[in-house]
Amino acid sequence: MDNLPLGKPCLMYSFGIANDWAFEDFMDYWGCEIHAYDPTVDFPAKRGDQISFYKLGLGTVTEPTMPSDTLANIFQMNGHSNATIDYLKIDIEGHELPGFPNWLETNALDNVNQLALELHLNIMTDSRGRQGTQGSR
């Protein structure tokens, strides 16, 4: 986390919480405003001092079957289209790479200072068209 203004106002987005709030809780302790998203778990809308939770996923289109929206739309819904996003954390279980072109095309990453992206290569299709399996590397 380079140049993160700890102890000063900062803005962070986190996609893919599951049951691990350690990083978000730590950043909340340091005074960051945090918007946390995960459609697969249920949590209260507020946590800590400045964490807001949304049962919504990150996708490339608005999906009726799994509540999700695009990164640009999510920033816009929160009034952050032109705000500096100090830290963007994405851990969305194999959907990271399919979303990346959309994030670039919509300029959603233009105001993001740092991006932490967890890639799940073991569940993505390799160059020979085979589906990877967990634990097979």
Describe the protein's architecture and organization:
This protein is 18% helix and 21% strand. With 137 residues, it is an alpha/beta fold. A six-stranded mixed sheet has the order 3-4-2-1-7-8, with helices on one face. A two-stranded parallel sheet has the order 5-6. Strand 3 and strand 4 form a beta hairpin. It starts with 9 loop residues before the first strand and ends in a 20-residue tail after the last strand. Mean pLDDT is 82; it is low at 130-137.
In short:
The protein has helices spanning 22-29, 71-77, 96-105, and strands at 10-15, 32-37, 46-47, 51-54, 57-58, 68-69, 87-90, 115-117. With 137 residues, the protein is of the alpha/beta class. It has three helices and eight strands, in the order βαβββββαβαβ.
Which regions are unreliable across 5 or more consecutive residues at pLDDT < 50? Answer: 130-137
How much helix is in the residues? 10-25%
Oligomer: single chain
What strand line-up does the widest sheet have?
A: 3-4-2-1-7-8
Shape: globular
Total count of strands: 8
